[in-house]
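Sample intake sheet
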Amino acid sequence: MGGVVTWLAWRQLRFPAFVAVGILVALVVELALTGPHLLHVYDTVVRTCARHGDCSSVTASFQHLAALSHPLSTLVTVVPILLGVFWGAPLVAREMESGTYRLAWTQGVTRVRWIVVRLALVVAVAVVITAVLSVATTWWQSPVDRLNNSPFNSFETRDLVPVAYAAFAVALGALLGAILRRTVLAMAATLAIFAGVRVAVGQWIRPRLFAPLDVVNARFIAPSLTGTQVSIRPPSANDWVLSNDVVNASGRVIGQNGGIGPNGSFGLNVSNNGSAILHGVGHCPNRLPIPPGGVRSGNPSPATQAAIQHCVDSFHLRQVLTYQPASRYWPLQWSEAAIFLVLAIALGAGCVWWVRRRLT
């Protein structure tokens, strides 16, 4: 009887699975045909462009050659949620709407076997499809990622986490379908909750999975009368910068992006008598030298710049950059994938429990 359940589950899944596999095979063939040339161009032209002083034109040409990069990343982003919405959510909800689950349960098949086989099969196929897509995309885009040198910008569309997202999405859809018993409603709920969880993890959990590191500039160096000040950087260009704040003596954040104010700007209101107000901080204790013709935006004289720096120093401002080092990319990949896989297992167990205990 277990084989009959598996066969029936596969029969219901085989058409959408064949369609998905057909699209995936076509995409993999395309990537296999174009990927080696992309890698060759990067290794022979892009990596050596600095020697010839023409990196700007070379980079532009290479990015044009890699025009498929953005659609690929978008595809890896949407595939897990599409699997959750169109495979996971109808898994139980459609059976409840049509009443066909009663036929299975009267043929000597227990509820638990029925839902476990169906759910396991759908999750397994979804995971395999997403894994192949992620591996192919990660390989094809490897030269693009090396050029961009920002691995965390493509974190959600590479390597392990898309596979865990797919398992989570399908299990979430199945549980919501069992609870709501309406296919369309379950699909909408799956989309909303999946998106919310992804945003929450990306914004608040992933940056804190490991304690971030800090780079501190104990003395905030003032720019000219106007402009943007970014005086510190993370140790490596491909580190993940979480924040770049300016704080006062009490530790309160008064600016972001290396400046004072939310947009990273730096500005002074200077009166005709030389008294000045540092935006977002307070009144300067000293007066600024007034050049002939009054105060103008731009590069101040050495005396004026020294007076501005004296004003800044009086407030004991410092710049604090918080980051995750690039060396934590793989630990973060494994950790986030584990989180979503544990959630998928919990949701799957919840779906089994709900079908066993609550469905009538």
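Comment: The chain has a mean pLDDT of 87. The longest strand covers residues 240-247.
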